[in-house]
Amino acid sequence: MKKIKISGFIFIVSIISFFTSCKSENKNTVAEESPKEMAISDSLKWSERLALTLMKEHPEAYQIDGKEEPKWDYVHGLVLTSFEELYKKTNNKKYYDYIKGYADATIDNTGAIPSYKYENFNIDMIEAGNILFNLYDTTKEEKYLKAIQTLRKQLSEHPRTSEGGFWHKKRYPSQMWLDGLFMGEPFYAHYTSKFEDGENLDDVAKQFELIQKHALDSKTGLLYHGWDESKAMAWANKETGTSPNFWSRSLGWYAMALVDVLDYFPENHPKQKELVSYLNQLAEALVKQQHSSGLWYQVTNMDDKEGNYLEASGSAMFAYALAKGVNKGYLPEEYKVAANKAFDGITRDLVKVSDDGEVIITQACAVAGLGGNPYRDGSFEYYVNEKKKDNDPKATGPFILAALELNK
């Protein structure tokens, strides 16, 4: 009888264990639900809502911008820089892991970057190096340092104008574009501050001085997209060398470059006040062009000329630069109002939210440039007819950065 009771007890325990195990397995299955199937809560801040959207759509960070194979590119660097700031804010390791996953997919164990072509001297390729400083500090893995040093070597050998300005690319000789200031200078400033005791900060500042000298329009306070020292390009003004129009995203690149390089200029550095003055000058000019919605047009000063449209990436970049400029004490508080107005305009007019909470930024220019083949002439018609792309990384990265600066 005693034996039967024990057997029965064992049987009951086994049944309970079976159901407990099933329940546990079901619980784990839910916890490990594929990111593709997860809904994104609207109780989160905009920064996390968009970051989770991107991770859901692109499980591997190298897939951002539709890439099928790992590729070293500035768009990934831009978005992952915003993830780095998000990680600092939330301490959620999944954002750090997403960044590291990209670095490990694009950099081999020797520190080489297989998809990067050094000989092209393309300043765009420097930008993604910004994510490597923290990875190296955190892991002390030598491969990250080797990659950082390769990018620094490119800058040391990069072709320059007669006054010392970095060409945009080897295949665009004698040209400086506003884009290039963001692509190269924050990395350069960070590197020289960290590894060279800041000895090349004057060279960093020189890049901005040259752009101010050659690309600034004294009437509007805006800067032209590009400048050709040789004046040989068909798009270049034969007297000044400047391109014909003001493009909001190029101005956004420049504004972000200013607020980001200032992170590495001590207040007592002779060039710090100069850079702050450029930022204030630009902020004043930009706010004059801000639409009542809070947004900016694709061609910045053409208002509602037929074909022009209120564009997402430039507006997000301006929101970030203005907000950070105020937060860092470079700009007067009034510019925070303009930044908030811009961000609210984006979320109200340009953002769609899907049924499962995914955030989609619309009205983002996919790409624009000067010269090349097919030829890009920098005309109004050229800029407004370039294709648009939802959740283009040139909009998503700055949107997350702006959201963090504004605590939205």
TrEMBL record:
It comes from the Bacteria. It holds the Pfam family Glyco_hydro_88. GO terms for molecular function: hydrolase activity. SUPFAM superfamilies: Six-hairpin glycosidases. Keywords: Hydrolase. Signal peptide: none annotated. The keyword Membrane does not apply. InterPro entries: 6-hairpin_glycosidase_sf, 6hp_glycosidase-like_sf, Glyco_hydro_88, PolySaccharide_Degr_Enz. This is Glycosyl hydrolase family 88.
